Amino acid sequence: MATACPVYFLPSCLPSYSSLPRDNEETVEHTPKQALSPPQGTVTRKWSQATVILKDQDSNARLATYGRNGVVSGEIEVARPTKVLEVAIKFEGFISVSCSDSGSLMKNLFSNTMSLWSRDRDKEERCPTLLPFVLQFPSTYEHEGNVWRIPPSFEATFLGIPALFARCTYTVSITISRVRQFRLASWSMSNSYTLLLNYRPRTRPYRPILYRSLLSSIKTVPEEWQQLALTVPTRQNSELKPIDCHLFIPSSKTYCITEPIPFHLQLCGSLESLRELLPPTCALLQPDIATSREHKYALDQRTGASAIRIYIVRQVGVDTDGRRRFRTCTIGTGKLQPVPPMISQLGDTKTEISVDWKGELRCWSEVTNGGFSASNLVVKDFLVITLTPTNGRSPLLPAQLSHLIRLVTDPWSEDSAVHPNDR
């Protein structure tokens, strides 16, 4: 039996949007934002003929910083305004990439020019001393028919062969035109002043990280950990057995650049193979000295410092003239701490054993943004573990594992895990 479709009526006006659910609705998932009070200071830049004041900024900051779709509001103080003909402001964004073996490319993301004041030729007007202005960062730009998000402010320099340079910059330029007179002659002159802005769109993890040790949480919440496996191979005709490496990291794959990333490392193999990778004098195999405070992170100072490395690498890729080039740099390091019991009571070198460490990864303080993708520039971050025998002639071969991660600017908010109206 056929059923007639219900009749739909188009309302005369659309209802206003609200983030709070109605009585017959509920919030499926919610990521709360930390209640951060906006800065109330100003950033001032002075020149001989003009002063620019940017509002709602940290007064101690070197550059004015803006988030996604940020509004650039401020004032221009004009010196000697009597002979000013026009004051104009230009807001621009650029991506510039270059590689020594494939050329360079500059992409204009956006460019907005606005006249703040101009003199009427028929009137003898005087330019105001203070000229307010309001600008806004766009959210996207177009390149070859594709829409891309505006990338954060970024700069990377890699020397060597080939040399690679990449920059994402945002500027505000002030142009002041004045009339000049000398005896019976008069002409106009223009002076431009450029102010660099810091664009830093905020991002945060979609869920928090479990800051508990693996051994105390793997059975109760195994979904909070992700296991990465790596094998340290041996040379041909070697009697040594390979070493199996298991690295456990938080399963979210999204980490804040200002917070530590916990991890757990386990090496499984024969005692003979482990001692080939790590000498017996290494602090990693001596829990009695590693428990003291001065030896808590002994891996950084003792023999075996290069045997195990866990760190964060940033890969920068540029596309110029159809050719892609990639360079990498380290942006964070990890420290290890032994987890007892260790192998001090084992005497059979052929016995299969496991050795465990726990630790934390931290980004360096100069890292201010995570990875991003733009038209001719791609930035990715990787968690890397390398196992390298200290003896160059060792039967064991070096091994490395890279795992793609996402770094964000802000931590997870612990204020609430649910929407305020769903409590």
Task: Explain what the structure shows.
The chain is mainly β and 423 residues long. The chain has three helices and 22 strands. Strands 13, 14, 15, 16, 17, 18, 19, 20, 21 and 22 form a ten-stranded mixed sheet that branches. Strands 3, 5, 6, 10, 11 and 12 form a six-stranded mixed sheet that branches. The protein has a four-stranded antiparallel sheet with strand order 1-2-4-7, with no helix packed on it. The protein is elongated and about 100 Å long. The two termini are 45 Å apart. Residues 7-14, 288-304 and 416-423 have low confidence and may be disordered.
Taken in chain order, the helices and strands follow as EEEEEEEEEEEEHEEEEHHEEEEEE
Overall average pLDDT: 83
Beta-strand residue percentage? over 45%
Overall 3D shape:
elongated
Coarse structural class = mainly beta
Q: Terminal Cα separation, in Å? A: 45 Å
Radius of gyration: 30 Å
Q: Provide a count of the helices.
A: 3
Q: What is the helical fraction, as a range of percent? A: under 10%
Contiguous low-pLDDT stretches (5 residues minimum) are 7-14, 288-304, 416-423
Taking the sheet with the most strands, its summary is: 10 strands, mixed
